Amino acid sequence: MRRILHIDMDAFFAAVEQKRHPELKGKPLVIGGSGDPTQRGVVSTGSYEARKFGVHSAMPLRTAYKLCPHAVFLPVDYQEYSRVSKIVKRILRKIGPIMEDVGIDEAFLDISQIKKPEEEIAREIKEEIKKQAGLTCSIGIAPNKLLAKIASDMQKPDGLTVIQNEDIEKHIWPLSVRKLWGVGPKTETALKDMGIDTIGRLASQSLDTLVETFGKSYGHYLYEASRGIDESPLITHWEPKSASREITFQTDVSNWQEIARTLAGLTKEVTNDLHRTRHKGKNVTVKIRFSDFETHTRAKTLKTTTNSKEEIRIAAFDCLGRFELKKKVRLVGVRVGGLEKE
User: Fold this and answer.
1) How far is residue 318's CA from residue 207's CA, in Å, rounded to a whole number?
2) Which domain holds residue 215?
3) What is the CATH number of the domain that holds 206?
4) Is 263 exposed, middle or buried, given 0-12, 13-18 or 19+ CB atoms closer than 10 A?
5) CB 3.0-4.6 Å disulfide test: which of 19, 130, 209, 266 passes with 245?
């Protein structure tokens, strides 16, 4: 039987800031954007003290300020968070070499071949992270990635939850369907319209019903996931499919030159990324979000893959020229897809 461990750092960005600024411990803390709640930007994370006021990730900073005006707002410091993340990942790789790096603050570890009880492995990880980084994490252990991820969220912060197959009916089925990996707001709403609000009620549906409602692929996924079935392997290495950058203007823009200048800067950043990772791309896409949040894209396919700054910039401006800029622009983005390794 597989034993998969999922580790999720507790309020990671906020915890890092509280570690290097001890005077912030116990205070509501919001990390996001430039750290100025009067400017446009979204919440990257909030401390547990801020979450009590309804602050959550992806929320506009202005909304977070309305909910918790006495919170401390700080800008995102990816350089520091990446440094601490590398310490955590180094600890995990020493314990088990089969690791899937999911993001800056979480990872999966296959501990099937480690001849120690899972609780002992989890305690060892927690102790090392506390010792080397001064932070806490929550860990879930289960027979697969899906259940391990759900388990890691069940006793936050500083939690440890072990789920076995026989625990699914008692511990997983009563949970909200939103706890299932891959179920977002739209699916949650669609399921509630069907009278389904828990994973258990989803598990009571027939495969035919779910396929008819959500399509073959996603219907099959929901049918199996609600029953705790997940055979997906740990991905220890992956190649990016695209490289992208985007920016939200602090105030909506109508000046074409400013939009063009911003697009040129973003294109330069993307091509720098391609050179750094030694990739070439073939598809160039420009995204424009207008002041009313209406979003459009224009794309161009090149004859051959490239990471030439000039070629990609020309393609991006070709895309920009096909937009009708009759409304003010809120966001500009550029993406290079169809990547291949040099």
Assistant:
1) 46
2) 168-225
3) 1.10.150.20
4) buried
5) 266
- pTM for the structure as a whole: 0.84
Alpha helices (H) along the chain? 12-20, 48-51, 61-67, 78-95, 118-133, 145-152, 185-193, 199-203, 207-214, 216-225, 256-277, 309-320
pLDDT in tens, 186-235: 999 999 999 999 999 999 999 999 999 999 999 999 999 999 999 999 99
Number of domains in the chain: 4
Residues of the chain with pLDDT under 70: none
SS3 7: strand
Contacts of 246 (CB under 8 A, 6+ apart): 266, 287, 331, 332, 333, 334
114 Cβ contact list (under 8 Å, min separation 6): 3, 95, 96, 121
Instruction: Quickly list DSSP for 252-300.
Output: EE--HHHHHHHHHHHHHHHHHHHHHHTEEEEEEEEEEEETTS-EEEEEE
Residue 24 near residue 18 (C-beta atoms within 8 A):
yes
Catalytic residues: 106
Instruction: Let me know how long the chain is.
Output: 342
**Domain at 90, CATH number:** 3.30.70.270
> d(Cα 123, Cα 113) in Å, to the nearest integer?
17
